[in-house]
Amino acid sequence: IANGEELGALCITEPFAGSDAANVFTSAIKDGDEWILNGKKRFITGAGVSDRYFIYAKTSDDPAIRKQYGHITSFMVEKGRPGFSLEKINPLIGFDNVPNGYIDFDHVRIPDINRIGAVGNGWNVMMAGLNFERLIGAAVFSGLFEDVINLLFHFTKRRVQFRRTTNQFPGIQNEIAEIISLAKGSVMHKAPNSSPFAILGSQDRF
Q: Residues in domain Acyl-CoA oxidase/dehydrogenase middle (predicted)?
């Protein structure tokens, strides 16, 4: 994946676990040197075309363990394993080249070597990845925001108030400058100076 030879997909969202990522129903039961996975994942970016799927499954129903977010374990599942299936692909607006779909796991067996991190440490693995992903997302939308700024520039050049175009008013100039500074500064400051991106990643999401 790091060399670009294969694609990976992150599988978190479920039919009843979206924003509440800790409330996973997909289960992983240890059977000797293997794990048996059962469950459903939804709205998975890269579904079908990815070679490896990184999923989060519950490995404990103990209320005390769940309270400490220790009931989740992370696994890697290769496409094509028996019981692994693609249920459907969702049409997306503006992302025709990025498939998004539903994936089902029906008694999928994987070796213990496919486990990522310690048993019960899946929540920390998930957050480490998501916090960095939020920063990447902020960078993407910061780039898209340049088009918004260009539209704003053109609008203020056309709109006339008090016999002047609005781009000549210091108050408007300051607001535009602040918007640009916040969008760019959010990424430029946090990317090199923050790890593991926990608080700053959430700020970028906001």
A: 9-108
